[in-house]
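Suppose a colleague, Dr. K., hands you the sequence of a protein chain of 98 amino acids and asks what its three-dimensional shape might be. Before reaching for any lab equipment, you can write down a predicted structure in token form. Begin with the sequence itself:
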Amino acid sequence: MDHERVPRMTCMALLIDPPMWPAHGTTWSHLVSDTSIAELRRFATELGLPSRSFDIDHYDVPEARYDEVVAAGASRVSAHELTRRLIASGLRVRARDR
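The predicted structure, expressed as tokens, is then:
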């Protein structure tokens, strides 16, 4: 990976949990912002994450892209911490409300 081409975003709190969610032959992480969905979408766009990986309040990130997302500025947190901070931000959309 060419780290010179990876965008660095430091003006927001981007969080990513460990790749642990199995689907489609790989494991996935969740990428969130505890600031705004708009900032999350801008960050994901700069990284070239496909829009189909956006799921209302987070992006699904395949394990193969985890290190790239962290290198671009996302903070590693546990799944519990990611959920706690997303709820605290008011941006969490509960499964039953999807």
